[in-house]
């Protein structure tokens, strides 16, 4: 191994379990895979979980890299290459991939037992640090405890940053912004307006300092002000549409009216058939699930825009796992769907039924058109003309999110719901979760919309708890 200025990264197993393409994400720097990591990859290859699939993909990639290489070539390091997606297929020459071809040992504190796999990796890192004192040797791991132990024994360590969408979750696109209080009065003289199908549109010239995205909501701070949706921005010309007001009782959706401006923005997108992908972020009690279900029922049962409502979520328990559950796929998913049942109960009481029979009939019809599906069986399926709801989407990785969204067929709509402040998955953070990933990637597409809901409407108790606990 050459003594040069390039960094040497030791990859922990969990990095490759999280992202098989991590091998190609360290630019010109070198990578070393300890034998312990290869052993752990071998142990984790069986099963149908996302982690097992990632392990198998990692094994295939490593096999392609070492294919036909001699032992001497492997010992000297194998060159890594990848195709640049933005430079007409140009091949980028990266660093080298090394394997632990001979034992690398170093002294560890007596309190760290040497038979543990994590401690073997630490020994490898410390040995490399001694062998190559001029190189910056870094352990890359998503395990916080591993990073703590690494620092304690004097080995530099870092998290895997390549899957981080943003530097800070506070920078995440909210989907809406405030206009100047007198925006309409100041710009009315240079705005072109017209009516189309009962909808009011405006056209206004903007300069390069204004950064608006398709379907971004522009809200006036005063109640009597101008609130609109950016429909298109092209050549410094923005097309705006006057926002519908779902806060009025006469425009209620399945008996539900928006209680605040944020919910009104969400309903504008949930009820728009031209918007095929909607993401709603918000803390508990902001109305994400209730608004989505109300819009889904209205468009499925009343307007017949969709044939079925499909709801699914990541099955990660908050406390101890309760073990295997009996029954069909839908019956197994029922314990995870408490939010669905709670909101259906509210919605079945909002239609003003005068008799128990009418209420029971509506509830039965709702249950018949709502299907609960497990994410484990989504791969390979195509859903045509379905209203698909992905609940608790903050617990999904970017790859899982891609797998689920690509299930949508012609005429389907997908709504992702979640709260990035309540992530239960051990290796995801606010900046690496799949929900943050899709919000950032979809903000440029004219058929998608995002709204971050901040104002709680569940109860004053829930709102106080969100703010103070």
UniProtKB/TrEMBL annotation:
The record's CDD domains line, in alphabetical order, gives: PIN_VapC_PhoHL-ATPase
Gene Ontology cellular component?
Answer: cytosol
Q: Which family does it belong to?
A: Belongs to the PhoH family. In the N-terminal section; belongs to the PINc/VapC protein family.
**What GO molecular function annotations does the UniProt record carry, in alphabetical order?**
ATP binding
Q: Matching SUPFAM superfamilies, A to Z?
A: P-loop containing nucleoside triphosphate hydrolases (SSF52540), PIN domain-like (SSF88723)
User: From which lineage does this chain's organism come?
Assistant: Bacteria, Pseudomonadati, Pseudomonadota, Gammaproteobacteria, Thiotrichales
Pfam family of the protein (one): PhoH
Q: Which InterPro entries match?
A: P-loop_NTPase (IPR027417), PhoH (IPR003714), PhoH2-like (IPR051451), PIN-like_dom_sf (IPR029060), PIN_dom (IPR002716)
Superkingdom field: Bacteria
Q: Where is the PIN domain?
A: 7-148
**Annotated protein name in UniProt:** Phosphate starvation protein PhoH
Alphabetical UniProt keywords: ATP-binding, Nucleotide-binding
């Amino acid at each position: 191994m050459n003594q040069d200025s390039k960094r040497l990264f030791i990859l922990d197993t969990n990095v490759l379990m999280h992202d098989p393409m991590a091998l190609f994400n360290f630019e010109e720097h070198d990578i070393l895979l300890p034998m312990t990591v290869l052993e752990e990859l071998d142990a984790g290859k069986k099963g149908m979980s996302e982690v097992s699939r990632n392990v198998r993909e990692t094994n295939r990639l490593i096999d392609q890299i070492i294919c036909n290489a001699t032992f001497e070539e492997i010992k000297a390091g194998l060159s890594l290459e990848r195709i640049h997606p933005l430079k007409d297929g140009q091949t980028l020459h990266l660093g080298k991939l090394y394997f632990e071809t001979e034992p690398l040992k170093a002294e560890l504190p007596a309190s760290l037992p040497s038979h543990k796999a994590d401690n073997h990796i630490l020994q490898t890192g410390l040995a490399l640090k001694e062998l190559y004192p001029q190189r910056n040797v870094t352990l890359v791991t998503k395990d916080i405890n591993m990073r703590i132990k690494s620092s304690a024994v004097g080995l530099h360590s870092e998290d895997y940053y390549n899957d981080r969408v943003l530097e800070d979750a506070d920078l995440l696109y909210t989907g809406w912004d405030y206009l100047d209080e007198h925006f309409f009065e100041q710009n009315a003289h240079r705005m072109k307006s017209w009516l189309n199908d009962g909808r009011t549109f405006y056209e206004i010239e903007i300069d390069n300092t204004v950064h608006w995205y398709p379907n971004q909501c522009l809200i006036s701070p005063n109640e009597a002000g101008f609130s609109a949706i950016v429909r298109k921005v092209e050549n410094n010309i923005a097309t705006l549409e006057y926002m519908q007001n779902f806060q009025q009782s006469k425009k209620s959706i399945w008996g539900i009216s928006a209680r605040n401006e944020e919910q009104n923005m969400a309903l504008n997108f949930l009820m728009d058939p031209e918007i095929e992908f909607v993401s709603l972020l918000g803390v508990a009690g902001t109305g994400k699930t209730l608004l989505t279900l109300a819009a889904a029922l209205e468009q499925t049962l009343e307007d017949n825009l969709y044939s079925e409502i499909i709801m699914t979520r990541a099955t990660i328990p908050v406390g101890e796992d309760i073990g295997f559950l009996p029954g069909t796929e839908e019956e197994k998913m029922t314990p995870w769907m408490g939010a669905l049942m709670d909101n259906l109960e509210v919605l079945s009481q909002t239609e003003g039924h005068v008799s128990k029979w009418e209420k029971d009939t509506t509830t039965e019809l709702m249950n018949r058109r709502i299907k609960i599906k497990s994410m484990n069986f989504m791969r390979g399926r195509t859903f045509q003309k379905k209203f698909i709801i992905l609940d608790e989407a903050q617990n999904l990785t970017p790859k899982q999110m891609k797998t689920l969204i690509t299930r949508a067929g012609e005429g389907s709509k997908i709504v992702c719901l979640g709260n990035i402040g309540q992530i239960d998955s051990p290796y995801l953070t606010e900046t690496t979760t799949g929900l943050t990933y899709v919000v950032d990637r979809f903000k440029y597409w004219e058929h998608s919309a995002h709204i971050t809901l901040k104002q709680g409407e569940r109860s004053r108790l829930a709102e106080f708890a969100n703010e103070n606990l």
